[in-house]
Amino acid sequence: MDATLQPLLEAFTQSLAPNPELIKQAEAFLKQASQQPGYSIMVLKLITLDIVPMEVRQAAAVNFKNTVKYHWVARDEGLGTAPFVIPDPEKEQVKAHITDLMLSAPPRVRAQLSEALSLISAHDFPARWQGLLPHLVAKLGSPDPQLVDGVLTTADSIYQRYRGQFMTAQLSEELQYSQALVQPLLACLQALSKQVAEAGAAPGGGDPARLRLLLSNVRLVASIFYSLNSPGLTDAFEETLDAWMAEWHTYLTFDAPASLAEADPEKESVVDGVKAQVCECLILFMERNEEEFAKFLQTFTQDVWTLLMKVSQAPGQDNLALHAINFLTAVSRSVHHQLFEGADTLRQICESIVIPNLRMREDMEEMFEMNWVEYVRRDTEGSDSDTCRRAASELVKSLTDRFPQQVTELFSGYVGAMLAEHARSPAAAWKAKDCALYLVTALAVRGKTAAAGATATNALVNLQDFFLQQVAPELSGGGGDGGVDAQPILKADALKFVTTFRSQLPKEAELGLFPALINYVFQIFAQLLEVRPPGVPVPDAYHAIFPPLLTPTFWERSGNVPALVRLLQAYLARAGSDVVARGYLQAVLGVFQKLIASRAHDHEGFNILGTLVESLDYQAVMAQYMPTIWQLLFSRLQSSRTAKFTRSLLLFLALFVAKRGAQLVADSIDGVQPGLMLMIMQTVWLPAMPSITGANEDKLVAVATARMLSEAKQLAAPDAAELDGRLLAALVGCLEGGGARGGEEAAEEGGGEEEHAAAGYSAAYARLHNAYKPENDPLPEVTDAKAVVAQALGKMAAGQPGRVPQLVAAALSPEQQQKLAGYCQAAGVAIS
């Protein structure tokens, strides 16, 4: 061994000693050494030595990863000495050797080096590491599955970052560069399939360890396929789509040898992992590339259907069941929903998919007993951890929306049967009632908000009778032997039912169940401000309570947030100039930043932001803050995109356009990054338009979309014509009520944890009935949105001769063209 490595070897060995003092000394030495040029290369050399004990090599690999993490890229530490950065020549040495070293390293060391490689590639790939992709591609054809595993693991870690990203110019260039991987990756998958088939055909199912490794590699290929297709379908993938889909069909229908089954029912088998990943890919194509995917839909729907018929209730198969159900839900929400309209099909869905996945399982019961808070978050509030229950509920809601009469009648029969089962033996059959409560909620909710719970319900479900007969007895102690404490899970179910349907249930009955009322002071103050006429000065007594509202302690309780936001909005609307003059705006913006980062309360952050841009002087006050605000919003959109956040962002953008003008908004966004406005229109505005529901919101989005088309010079560019056409088609759909279904579903998708976090489970917020805030119409001056849209298009036609007729002909269906012609004729506008 090189003598220069001896001090490092001793330090890493000492860092594993049981003596804390020795560990401290070793860490101090390594920290100082890591600040010197050449350190990373020395650590890599140490890792390669077989004579070094494995635990020491692993410790060195962890240290190398951390060195890359903290010293590869210059970081701004503010005042003081700038942190050490690895010199460029040393970086080139690392990049020249790390891939081969990682591929040949033992598994525990490989895992750390793989993370280090991902960190490097996140900064350097592809622009500063042109040799990485060719190097990986060259090794993909290896007959050694262990080597292929290393290559695929590396590629998977590199391309994970493409998921959920904006299609920027830089990303487009990276994707174009990475198309060189598509054909070799497909060839690798086909070679793996051949090896899997050969191994599976061997006597006794072949070597289980080898088969597991091969299938693990297949899952990695599917994961890379998903990542590379997340930003959009490229030509290379579209040209080879038939071959890719043939492979995914093979794996969805793959019958695993018994030797691959897991002894632990809570552990996912490698085969189920592959199938779940394939289902995730199918969902992506169903949602993003429906037209290109249409010819494969019948085959894959049958594959997934057959798969679900075989899936057990073992926790180890939850991931597979979840993605398979979500795929069927995606199909049911599409134009291909007729695949499920038969009575026998719906009956099979209820009996074989919905009810088995809604039923309480032992592991769920154990979770409630051990940690009921997590149970509520995960299964009752619909937290980030998706569950099969939530997936089954979403499938019911989608099917009810498509086939309301059939589904309600059919599923109500199953509800009745489960309630009858419970009535015969309440103590033994409480799980039947638990399932029935979930099924009724899924059937009944058609739209939901944080402030009011369910806002639109299925008229075919008699909620009041169900509440009085099945829910109220659970809360009042009459739900069976032993009273309410006998089955606490049913009590939790009943509480969820009441909070969800609180706007539809008899108020007298609700007050009888919840005699203790909470403090409503924030709502009362908000209402007192709201009823003051605009322009009338706000008394100093109100200003005295404003600073305490910005105290972080108040905002720590989730239940306080809705009332506090309402009060802040009232202040800003009635005394916005005073808020600025008294120096409170920075603190208000801090509250906005806190809320926008929360999945539970991001919509409340948008409420504040909307009031700010609407109430304050834009050029004198708000313009200076908008670059930072855009960065916060787009960073959150990229890192943690949800349907609720996207919908809220669209509504804010529409309000901003309606109040301040389309060109101002477009230029403000492009000020963050040239061309960003068009990306936002394509990836946020257009996809979120179907999620808008309600007359005021429909009007706001329609008017704002028309103004963007007619006023924003970015959308007048020749290369924006396709986007303009799609926006125009979506605009007509919005005016004709085409967004209602999507809005209800998106509200549900964005609900769950986010909705209930502000609606009751913190026991801190309940809406004061007499302080009810009427729905705000942001555009009261617009009485006929269709006329405003027609006038905007007339303005567009005058300013861009010939463009509007071309868009109409290219993007609108004959029915939509007829509708648009009617708007123009009624408004006396010519667009040709």
From TrEMBL:
Its main location: cytoplasm. It is found in: Cytoplasm; Nucleus. One of its GO terms (molecular function) is small GTPase binding. It comes from the Eukaryota. Keywords: Cytoplasm, Nucleus, Protein transport, Transport. Transmembrane segments: none annotated. GO terms for cellular component: cytosol; nuclear envelope. One of its GO terms (biological process) is protein import into nucleus. Residues 26-104 form the Importin N-terminal domain. The keyword Manganese does not apply. This is Importin N-terminal domain-containing protein.
